[in-house]
Amino acid sequence: MDKEKPEIEIPSIELLKMELARVESRRNFRKTLLNIAGVLIVAAAIAALIATQVFVLIRVNGSSMSPTFEAEEIIILRRTQEVKAGDTIGFYYGGSIFLKRVIGTAGDKIDIDQKGNVYVNDELLEEPYLKNKNLGKCELEFPYQVPEGMYFVLGDNRAVSLDSRIKSIGCVQSDQIVGRTVIRVWPLTRVEIMR
Questions:
Q1: Residue of 17, 31, 63, 64 marked active site
Q2: Among this protein's residues, is 109 annotated catalytic?
Q3: % helix / strand / coil in the chain, to the nearest 5?
Q4: What ranges do the domains of the chain cover?
Q5: What number of other Cβ atoms are within 10 A of residue 21's Cβ?
Q6: In what order do the strands lie in the sheet with 109-112?
Q7: Domain 58-193 fold
Q8: At CA 168, angle to CA 163 and CA 172, rounded to 5?
Q9: CA 64, chain centre distance (Å)
Q10: 148 Cβ contact partners less than 8 Å away, ≥ 6 residues apart
Q11: What is the longest distance spanned by two Cα atoms in the chain?
């Protein structure tokens, strides 16, 4: 008994070309996906590096900087120790980051009267960011000269702010400074780039 051998069907050249194109397409698709994944990983790593080394994201606690910054707002600081009078900065104190405004720098003479008027080097400081002037809690004797390498800082809500007027906080050293505020990102209705 002879069994007939089944005929082997040989695909046409066109079918072989189509199958080869399909395999090549699948390989190219995988290669493209891997390239995209690689680019996304590198981009995420760069973004994380920038976010941690260049910028600091903080949430405002309390009302010491009201009305400039309100509780629960989210602020971005640019890491720098180069700040000037008028800048709002974040600095380390007691394991936290405090937000305050730089009023005077090294060598400046600061004076605050009973009504809360601030004088820097005998000139009245214009403070349009204040709601109310207030001497607040003050343990310093005025006039006060800012020591070398230090910054005199005040909160914008002087009645409740703990700042350079309190001896335990005092003036801020350069190495305490985290950075300068650059943008308020939350809430969306108050997004603002700081000058």
A1: 64
A2: no
A3: 25, 30, 45
A4: 11-53, 58-193
A5: 10
A6: 123-124, 118-120, 109-112, 144-145
A7: Umud Fragment, subunit A (2.10.109)
A8: 55
A9: 19
A10: 106, 107
A11: 122
Catalytically annotated residue among 12, 66, 100, 168 = 100
Active site residue 100: yes
- Three-class secondary structure of residue 154 per DSSP: strand
Alpha-carbon span 112 to 99, nearest angstrom: 20
Cα Rg of the chain, angstroms = 31
- Residue reference for tokens 């000139």: 123
Mean pLDDT taken over the chain:
84
| Residue 35 tokens, joined | 């390239």
pLDDT, tens only, 155-189: 888 888 888 888 888 889 888 998 898 878 888 78
Do the beta carbons of residue 120 and residue 151 sit within 8 Å? no
More confident residue, 49 or 191: 191
Angle at 154 between CA 93 and CA 72, to 5 degrees: 70
For residue 147, cis peptide bond before it (omega within 30 degrees of 0): no
pTM of the model: 0.70
CA 172/CA 2 separation, integer angstroms: 102
Residue 81 to residue 89: CA distance in whole angstroms: 9
The total of other beta-carbon atoms located within 10 Å of residue 60's CB is 19
The tokens of 163 are what?
A: 């700042």
